[in-house]
Amino acid sequence: MTTLLNEPIEKLKTSVKGHVVLPDDPNYDEVREIWNAMIDRKPAVIVQCAQADDVARAIAFAREHKLEISVRGGGHSVAGTAVCDNGVMIDLSPMKNGRIKQHNDQTPRHSDFNKDLVKLKNRK
Ligand SMILES: Cc1cc2nc3c(=O)[nH]c(=O)nc-3n(C[C@H](O)[C@H](O)[C@H](O)COP(=O)(O)OP(=O)(O)OC[C@H]3O[C@@H](n4cnc5c(N)ncnc54)[C@H](O)[C@@H]3O)c2cc1C
Description:
Layout: H1 6-15, E1 19-21, H2 28-32, E2 45-48, H3 52-64, E3 69-72, E4 88-91, E5 98-100, E6 109-111, H4 113-122
Parallel strand pairs: 2-4, 3-4
Antiparallel strand pairs: 1-2, 5-6
Bound molecules: flavin-adenine dinucleotide.
Flavin-adenine dinucleotide is lined by residues 35, 70-77, 81-82, 92.
């Protein structure tokens, strides 16, 4: 299937800051692997996102080519829903930091993502 998508995949590769990994790439098996080793699904395309724009581009690509999407965070879900067969796996694991806008301070800032999520959760 990826043969049919050669040109769009090349475009996707040049438009993302992260990496696009395909079944014939040497690191493909390593990248599609998740915690539950019983899950052996093979996405057609894996987008290792480096920034939010990469996620948007990966979604647009999947929509345009009517491909299923799966989202991988840490890949620890036992059900293995982070990885799909023949679709686009959006791999968020390279994105370790977030940027959160404070409610009363509109200046975006880099943050310790987990710490700020806890703060947001505790806000009444
Ligand atoms: C050894 C082990 C110990 C665990 N211990 C605990 C524990 O103590 N407490 C507890 O609550 N849980 C525990 N879990 C469960 C684990 O926290 C959950 O499975 C959690 O969802 C894993 O997060 P992940 O990012 O690795 O998920 P993934 O496997 O990457 O994804 C899980 C699901 O969430 C979706 N998803 C991930 N990120 C996004 C996103 N940004 N946007 C939209 N969808 C997204 C994926 O598509 C998938 O469907 C444990 C799991 C393991 C393997």
